[in-house]
Amino acid sequence: METLPLLTFILSVGIIVSLTWLFLIPFTGRLVQLKKLNQHISSSADLKALHTRLELLMLERRPFLNPAYDNHMLAEHLGMDAQVLDYFLHAYLETSFHQLVDAYRVQYACLMLQSEAAQDLPMDAIARASGFVDRQMFFQCFRRRTGKTPVQYLNYLVFAKNNLQVA
């Protein structure tokens, strides 16, 4: 009879330990990334400056439009080692290279879809022009970032435009 409460206690402790590790491992991983990043970039002003340089590069030169663009190319553009770039992205921006590039690509696709000229283009052409290799990846990334497929987003824009003209 007393083994049941003991067994319940053991299972409860096991679940708590498992959940603690589930949440602690990503946090610990980020701490390791921050420590490694601090070995290369020590001041917060340098981190902010790097972040600004990254944003300017992406917005002005738009290297993400190249489907073959990779983290080594980005690191070269920023004048740093690719490993340090990865530390920066994961620890400071809390993202990965692919998530970062996909975000800029989706943002660019949204801007294209808002233009009158692009509304007549097939989605494959918009995907390629935004830097995506294929339509399926374009749709997946677009939906993940906006909550809508590109077609749904375009339909929403047309609907909103028509309702504004009526009012």
UniProtKB/TrEMBL annotation:
<keyword id="KW-0472">Membrane</keyword>
<keyword id="KW-0812">Transmembrane</keyword>
<protein>
    <submittedName>
        <fullName>Helix-turn-helix domain-containing protein</fullName>
    </submittedName>
</protein>
<feature type="domain" description="HTH araC/xylS-type">
    <location>
        <begin position="74"/>
        <end position="156"/>
    </location>
</feature>
<keyword id="KW-0804">Transcription</keyword>
<dbReference type="GO" id="GO:0003700">
    <property type="term" value="F:DNA-binding transcription factor activity"/>
</dbReference>
<dbReference type="InterPro" id="IPR018062">
    <property type="entry name" value="HTH_AraC-typ_CS"/>
</dbReference>
<dbReference type="Pfam" id="PF12833">
    <property type="entry name" value="HTH_18"/>
</dbReference>
<keyword id="KW-0238">DNA-binding</keyword>
<dbReference type="GO" id="GO:0043565">
    <property type="term" value="F:sequence-specific DNA binding"/>
</dbReference>
<dbReference type="InterPro" id="IPR018060">
    <property type="entry name" value="HTH_AraC"/>
</dbReference>
<keyword id="KW-0805">Transcription regulation</keyword>
<feature type="transmembrane region" description="Helical">
    <location>
        <begin position="6"/>
        <end position="27"/>
    </location>
</feature>
<keyword id="KW-1133">Transmembrane helix</keyword>
<dbReference type="InterPro" id="IPR009057">
    <property type="entry name" value="Homeodomain-like_sf"/>
</dbReference>
